[in-house]
Design goal:
By secondary structure, this protein is mainly α. It has twelve helices and two strands. This is Cysteinyl leukotriene receptor 1.
């Protein structure tokens, strides 16, 4: 495998020098296998926990609840494909899972990436309306509108990301290994990839980022004007959300989109080996950062979610109540069965009474 082993279909050109002497394969395999393993563990735990709480407390749903539920589902779908990537990079770039799963793994990455961006944008708009237009927002912010917004986001992202389903696995003629996320170099694909990059960069990143910046600027101005009001809870949630969402954009989304655009415009230029290696390593690092967004979202649920901690408290109380009812059922049973099966519990009950 050569130095141009950049994941998915964004790199489709080959430098003129001997690629075998200028390869980032070892660096790439170590970074991706380590990063994706960590994201699998932390993302699975955090998003699964959040999803359970959100489903259990669905009766208390709000517009924010709908957005967070869809965000958790998007993250978990992506996390399910990460073990396949880990095996691929641990195996030093050999794909064992067939062409279909290769296409799906690449496709799901971009679906999750842009679903996350658009859902975070929708959540920011909702918070903006709730704070800047607290009276008028009741007409615009509703559970029904949130559901339709999520349906629109899913349809738009899944359809516009469909070109990534075109790139499947293939057998490398040099190493005889089955490759995935690395389509064979083709000049015919270069123009299509550049067009896709422009669309994704402008519609999938720049426009949502501008909308979020405008929303948060207006939110901050409103909070500063109304600093003496009693809406401390709403203010704290807004500030926490601004910090977390901006951190996700600056740490996860922005480096990847900027570096991807730079790489696509400079990859065909003649460079020395060290310069090319550095460019390729930056693409690897920024793509790993983009994948890390699935670990940031649980922080958003807990710290700035719409009464997420109250939902957790409610769920805990329900669990305690259910355990109390189970104990009552056990106490109403046969004393003979209790003395044989639960002697320690019976002793504890008698001592407490």
């Amino acid at each position: 495998m050569g130095a141009v082993s950049i994941p998915d279909m964004w790199n489709t050109t080959t430098p003129s020098y001997d690629a075998s002497s200028c390869s980032i394969d070892d660096f790439r395999n170590k970074v991706y296998s380590t990063a994706y393993s960590m994201f699998t563990v932390f993302g699975l735990v955090g998003n699964s926990f959040a999803l359970v709480v959100l489903i259990k407390t669905y009766r208390q749903r709000t517009a924010f609840h709908i957005y967070m539920l869809n965000l958790a589902i998007s993250d978990l779908l992506f996390i399910c494909t990460l073990p396949l990537r880990v095996v691929y990079y641990v195996s030093k770039g050999n794909w064992y899972f067939g062409g279909f799963l290769c296409r799906i793994s690449s496709y799901v990455f971009y679906v999750n990436l842009y679903c996350s961006i658009f859902i975070l944008t929708a959540m920011s708009i909702t918070r903006f309306l709730a704070i800047v237009f607290p009276v008028k927002n009741l007409k615009f912010v509703s559970i029904r509108r949130a559901k339709w917004a999520c349906v629109g986001i899913w349809l738009f992202v899944t359809l516009t990301s469909s070109p990534f389903l075109m790139s499947g696995s293939y057998v490398d003629s040099k190493t005889n290994a089955t490759k995935c996320f690395e389509p064979p170099p083709s000049e015919g694909k270069k123009k299509m990839v550049l067009i896709l990059n422009y669309i994704a960069f402008i519609i999938g990143f720049i426009l949502p980022f501008i909308v979020i910046l405008v929303c948060y600027t207006m939110i901050i101005k409103t909070l500063l004007k109304n600093s003496m009001t009693k809406q401390q809870n709403s203010r704290k949630k807004a500030i926490r959300m601004i910090i977390i969402v901006m951190a996700v954009f600056f740490l996860s989304f922005m480096p990847y989109h900027i570096q991807r655009a730079i790489h696509l415009h400079t990859v065909s230029k003649n460079k020395d080996c060290n310069e090319t290696l550095w460019e390729q390593k930056k693409v690897v690092i920024t793509l790993a950062l983009a994948a890390s967004n699935c670990c940031f979202d649980p922080m958003l649920y807990f710290f700035s979610g719409e009464n997420f901690r109250r939902r957790l408290s409610t769920l805990r109380k329900q669990s305690v109540s259910s355990m109390a009812q189970d104990n009552k059922r056990k106490k109403s049973g046969s004393s003979h069965d209790k003395s044989e099966i639960f002697p320690a519990l019976e002793k504890q009950d008698s001592s407490e009474s």
